[in-house]
Amino acid sequence: MNILVLGPQGSGKGTQAGRIKATYGIPHIATGDMLREMRDVPDELGRELKEVMDRGDLVSDELMIELIRSRLSRGDTVAGFILDGFPRTMPQAEALDELLRELDRDLDIVFDFQVPDRDVLLQRMLHRAAEESRSDDTPEAIQRRLELYERETAPLVEYYRTHQANVVGIHADRTVEEVFGEIGRSLQSVEARA
Ligand code: ADP
Fold it and tell me: d(Cα 15, Cα 8) in Å, to the nearest integer?
């Protein structure tokens, strides 16, 4: 099962991706986690990443596409994967299409995590900021990340709809259990069709 999760910061998609991984035994490819590991290496790239990420800006498409290319080429993704945090821009989405074509794979489902109330997102992010103390959880960087999501990433939902992907909207402003229930039902219907 090849799954893509789209949704703004604070929509809970990372939590749900972790649940899907635990239930279905497929890798959770979270670009934010991959980049934080690279950022913490004391070299030139690590320093550059730290600067970009602490501002809440996006890492270059070029680097992201290479990162995903090498990750999806690994054998543990053959039975499926959950892509979380990529694509975030239109060039990334186009590169992913191309890459999946090369690998002769398809996305089975795209989850669109929807939280209509921006205050709910902000509250969740502030809560997480207090718990995890990430260096990009300053008010300015949080603002910037939400802004870039709206501008660069939200349009991808429409892109997938028009490219005949199976896009499923998720009402994400509910409990983890309720949201996971809805996701489980969608995944079952994809499996039934396979
Ligand atoms: P969040 O969704 O809370 O912003 P992530 O952990 O997904 O956090 O990502 C953290 C940071 O990593 C982003 O703010 C951005 O700088 C970088 N990043 C992650 N994925 C991508 C991507 N696909 N393209 C560009 N930058 C990315």
Answer: 13
